[in-house]
Amino acid sequence: MPAASNRRNIVGVKAETVTNVSSTDFPGHWPGEDHSWNIKHFRRTFRVKFFRNTPLFSQFDLIHTDAAIANTLRRIMIAEVPTLAIESVYVSNNTSIIQDEVLAHRLGLIPLCGDKDALKGLSWYLRGEDSAPREPTDEDTVVLYLKKACERNPDAKKTDTDPDKLYINHNVYASDILFEPAGRQIKSFAHDPVRAANPDILIAKLRPGQEIDLTMHCIKGIGQDHAKFSPVATASYRLLPDIKIKKPIRGKAAERFAACFPKGVIAIRERKDGEKEAVVDNVRNDTVSREVLRHDEFKGIVELGRVRDHFIFSVESTGQFDADEIFLSAVGTLKAKTINLKRDIYKMLRKQALDARRAREAENPDADEEGDAMDTQ
Amino acid sequence: MTVRHPGGSASFEILGEDHTLGNALRYIIMKNPEVEFCGYSIPHPSEEKMNIRIQIYPEYWEHTKPYDALMKGLDDLADLCDHITHAFKEARDNFVEPGDNSEQR
Questions:
Q1: Which of chain B's residues have a Cβ under 8 Å away from the Cβ of A71?
Q2: How far is it, in rounded angstroms, from Cα A268 to Cα A290?
Q3: pLDDT tens-place string over residues A289-338
Q4: CA angle A43, A47, A48 (to 5 degrees)
Q5: Stated pTM of the model
Q6: What CATH number is given to the structural domain containing A160?
Q7: Residue A63 belongs to domain with CATH number
Q8: How many domains does chain A have?
Q9: Which ipTM score applies to this complex?
């Protein structure tokens, strides 16, 4: 690649402006260069690199793709990967100070977990006509119960002031939510029942005589409908920072230079002649704060930027699915979208062809249609 | 301004889609060398509608219609998804979690 094109994928970060923002890898943009879509080229250049992969958190790089693709996948992870969440709460008794509707909202936001395959196997709960509730089944609805009543602790000392000693069951936690499997759920969730992903979420506080007793129906949904269905706590990407030192920075200036960046970004190496020199060590740690651009002594010596086709993804799961699985589901969802849209276009083209033929026939009516035309006159 | 051949350009109204598919589709259709212009818009945020416009270079009108470019874009996007899945799984399966001393976010 020529030297000029090496800087082509760098977004310039200047003191007051950001330059070279848009990608230009389209046919017809650069004379004599072929930028048309080529899956072989994509297979050769596209890279994925993992940095962390735990069930709840993944960090990985997508290299040599466009922001359009990276952003689409990020958006799908947040808004279109389905999860199970509490949708309806049927309150039998709630004498706590937290109101029914507030309690229901709090319950809805609790992330659930359970057997992953069984969760994926659940079907959509579709409302009937006029969005009237439909009879739930074991295929589309998971039923949970929560029942807790607070009372005085008979063993408490008179001098006690700590609620933990004075009362029994005064805290309602997410771990108190119990699963009631129905039908085939008894088998599919046998080893891994539906429960709160984080058992220590405090739902409500009670005092002696107060009680919460309710039934919850959980259904599958997507984040587009309500944030409680979003499988991720955060799914974000940033571009890889780029620091270019144009002239060697040596001696005391090297230390001042390193101090402009977060730890680990700039290393100070000792040269053969014993002088210190600043070199770029780990750009991933940089926050691109532009602090270095405020110092006159480094003016024109350093260029900051970001690599436009290098995306550092961070995906944090809420606990229902593993973070890497959520990304794969997002890619699968995007592919499903293309297939569904293609099917709809075929349908549209067939209808258009049919309409065109009808219109032609109306213009040159044969004997039968002439009779009809006479009637309407 | 020239009058366009009616078969050389078209706008498609896609219901129930937004920027998620719109921008990805725009990118991949713009990668098609027969396409002179491709853009998408969401006319109003309250309406679940996404409009995508495609114009074909006049020299390709004979054998390429805008919906052909749209179909090709969808196919290319599906290929891209397949390869991302493949590359992602490969990288994940070969990845060894480093010691917990390098927390990089």
A1: 19, 23
A2: 20
A3: 999 999 999 999 999 999 999 999 999 999 999 999 999 999 999 999 99
A4: 130
A5: 0.89
A6: 2.170.120.12
A7: 3.30.1360.10
A8: 2
A9: 0.90
